[in-house]
Structure formats: structure tokens, C-alpha cells
UniProtKB/TrEMBL annotation:
The chain crosses the membrane at residues 70-89. It comes from Oricola thermophila. It comes from the Bacteria. This is Uncharacterized protein. Keywords: Membrane, Transmembrane, Transmembrane helix.
Length: 198
């Protein structure tokens, strides 16, 4: 069953998302010009004088660590301890999608669209700050990648809305069948399993 008001809101939200993405691309282009860097095969290249300017703002590692709060230092092993389950999750989901998505006919999720690690190119960061930025880029990217793989899996196997609203549903959820609408589920499942253009 369709819901004209919700369908209209979803369409407008999709258009707004496209506008936001276009604006973000324009801002990135402006940022590249302002801070004088280019992207070459995914690698950041700053102009020489801009790198020199950035280096003047770098806080040395010893100074950085000596000024750190004790709680920050003591919590570091907890934060970095998550690298093992994150890496295992990354590997597991990568293998899962390469095997199962090919069997199901689901388009593969491009991992590189989600896992972006580039802040280590910033000369104003010291080694520890760069490591932190690499870790955060990787961790958040893996979570984003896994969420998209899970969303596509849900669209294929169980595209039914929940009985109650959940916080932050993935991008595929609005297309799912209403909770309790057996007729729409049975009649539309095959088509939804082939429609990845939302």
C-alpha cells in the first residue's frame, strides 16, 4: 500500500539529499582551491608552500603527549583495542558480500566509498594525531560500509518496516513494505529484490 504523503516526503528528502551532496562537492572544490591541494589517484598533494605553512602549526609529539589529560592516555588502550573486532568485521563482511551478493544478484558495495583514510596527509598533525585520524577514518568507514551491506541484505531478504520507529534507519528502509501488509510483500518482493536504484 502506498502512502502519498510519506512517498512525497521521501521523494523530497531524496532530492534534498542530492542537493546536499552537490553542495558538499562544491564546498570540497572550494576547499581544494583555498588550501591549494589536488587529488591524484586518491592521494592528496599539497603545494609545497602550503605544506610548509601547515608544518608551522604542528605540535611536537612530546609536547602533545605531556599536555594530554591522564584519562585520555589511560583510555587509549580501550579505544585502540577495538581495532581487532573492527578488522575482523571488515574482513568478514567483505567476504560475505563477495560471496553472497554475487549469488543473490545484489550489487556489491564499494568499500572505498565508505572507508576514507586521508587526514594523515596534513602536515599540521603530529604522528600520534595522524594515527588517531587514520584509526577514526577506518573505524567510521567500516561501520558505514557494514551498514550499507546490511541494508542491502535486509532489502533482499526481509524488506518489511518495523512495527515501531527506530532511530536512524538506513537508506533502503523507506522502500520496505508496511508491517502487516502481507499482500504487498508477496506481490512486490521479487521486484524490490531487483530494484537497487533508490
Amino acid at each position: 500500500m502506498t502512502h502519498p504523503v510519506l512517498d512525497d516526503l521521501q521523494r523530497r528528502m531524496s532530492n534534498t539529499r542530492k542537493e546536499i551532496e552537490a553542495e558538499m562537492e562544491a564546498q570540497l572544490a572550494e576547499q581544494r582551491e583555498r588550501f591549494r591541494y589536488t587529488l591524484h589517484r586518491g592521494k592528496v598533494r599539497f603545494e609545497r608552500d602550503m605544506r610548509a605553512l601547515q608544518r608551522r602549526y604542528r605540535v611536537g609529539l612530546l609536547k602533545y603527549v605531556s599536555r594530554a589529560r591522564l584519562g585520555y592516555v589511560l583510555s587509549a588502550p580501550i579505544i585502540y583495542g577495538l581495532i581487532v573486532p573492527l578488522a575482523f568485521l571488515d574482513l568478514s563482511v567483505t567476504i560475505y558480500q563477495h560471496v553472497c551478493f554475487r549469488i543473490y544478484g545484489i550489487p556489491l558495495v564499494r568499500r572505498g566509498d565508505h572507508v576514507v583514510v586521508d587526514r594523515h596527509h596534513l602536515a599540521y598533525l603530529n604522528g600520534l594525531e595522524k594515527l588517531n585520524c587514520v584509526y577514526c577514518g577506518y573505524a567510521n568507514g567500516v561501520i558505514s560500509f557494514v551498514r550499507e551491506v546490511a541494508g542491502r541484505t535486509e532489502q533482499f531478504w526481509c524488506p518489511i518496516k518495523h512495527a515501531r520507529r527506530n532511530a536512524g534507519p538506513h537508506d533502503h528502509a523507506h522502500r520496505f513494505f508496511d508491517f502487516g501488509d502481507a499482500e504487498a510483500y508477496r506481490s512486490g518482493l521479487a521486484d524490490l529484490r531487483k530494484d537497487w536504484n533508490a
